[in-house]
Amino acid sequence: MSAILDHLPEFWQGLIVTLQLTAASFAGAAVMGLVITAMRVSPVGVLRGIGTAYVETFQNLPLLVLLVLAVFGLPEIGIKAGLLETAIVVIALYEAAYIAEALRSGVNAVSAGQGEAARALGLTFSQSLRHVILPQALRTVIQPLGNVFIALTMNTSLAAAVGVVDLTAAANRVNLMEAQPIPIFVGAGLAYALIAACAGFVTGRLERRLVMVR
Amino acid sequence: MVSMKRMAAVAAVSMIGLSACSGTDSGSPAVPGEAKGGDLLAKAPVAAAADILPGSTMEKIKQRGELIVGGSLDAPLLSQQNPTTGEVEGFDADMGKALAKYIIGEPKVKIVNSASETREALLSNGTVDVVFQTYTITPERAEQVAFAGPYYSSGLTLAVRKGTSGIAKPEDLNGKTVIAGANTPAIPAIKKLAPQAKIVTFGSDPECMQALKQERGDAYVQDETLLIANAQKDPSIQVVGQPFTTDPYGIGLKHGDDQFKKFVNDWLKKTQAAGLWQQTWKNSIGTVVQGEAPAPPQIGSVPGS
Predict the structure, then answer these.
(1) Which regions span the lipid bilayer (chain A) (predicted)?
(2) In 3D, which of A107, A94, A97 has the Cα closest to residue A50?
(3) Rounded distance between C-alpha atoms, residue B145 and residue B304, angstroms
(4) What DSSP designation does B136 have?
(5) Can you name the residues that pair with B80 across neighbouring β-strands?
(6) Closest alpha carbon within chain A to B214
(7) How would you list the strands of the sheet with B247-254, edge to edge?
């Protein structure tokens, strides 16, 4: 136990970095995912193709591969950013594919009549998406989005492999000195579980408030 | 437009990084010279039947017919898998094989690629019999595991890009960004000697080297042997100064198994007395470090051993 208590500042610092990674990459993934979804349901064939290609590409590559590629590969072509920033962008791009899939399932759940009605009113594609389809779609996918958020939180631990000192890396460093992997990693695991539990609680509340009874 | 050449470079570099992650280095073998482990092991001693006490750990290993070693597959000169033969070569690997021969009569080992953060757990739950993995003996670790040895003494030193000025000793690292292997003794050592240094860590030695060359840090702190081997392969980096720490490597054993610890220490003494230790050193670390084999450290000379 003292192995954890003696190193609370390190754990705290690591937790802050994990929260930064999670919040920033989820925000980025949400924006990107929305764009991809709009492309996938758009009437323009090329955009649909790009959207599909994006989702298929990122869902079929391991995140660690992407992280290593971005951190060690991009500097070779002259693109070098900070480690934390690189990790945020890569995780956001990766998770956007999952958010896009969750949103698309929401769009599919909106009945076709809604879209037809919107068009009959004279709304353009983007207007009907913004005012009719997406608000309904979002309400049906709160729980799936919460799950993506939780998965994203866990995935941020991979950033430790490319030099970001997050909660996982902090636990590794403390363990190097204290040599007590069980209490240290159980402690770090509990911190991740706590973040996930908070996310689950929030999505549960939101869902109950916003759910649409059909 | 990104030229094909650049794309190829990205792909190649990412392969280096990826192979480093998976632990099998597909590049040229870092161990210069050919492995002579074979005839060395032929000379390695085998324990007398009376030494394999009934009910002991050694008897269990002998009956299993295989020594399970916690080790690395990507540490040049110490424990690295040769991509062409699949054999794991280096000082730690050969010592492990010699210990297996001493117990079983044949150098049969199975290497479990143990990460630094799992070694204590792997030993205490019995997944591995011994750990040969540049395992520095410290009093904190000795509370969790037992250490035979020390069987080798090493030290940390600095590598920089060729042409870097102003870094000659660890104190010069204050205010600089320093690269270190994740979970290596380099991290506490830097914190102690250069508290104002910013430490960036990567999972493996090839990744740290890549990060140094890509200017993600001003210096790379690592075991001297590894750095000399790296500098020989890659002329764009250089090793500066002398080792500034003493890291006594021990053979990790399950805590409290005094019988097995004594057995392993006895083997170590025999190996050293027969000159086999020195020959193993010459075959691995001695291929990059000049001069004769050093005197092996005194067994039990370090707190925790």
Answers:
(1) 12-36, 57-75, 81-100, 148-170, 182-204
(2) A97
(3) 9
(4) B
(5) B74, B89
(6) A75
(7) B109-113, B67-71, B130-131, B247-254, B145-154
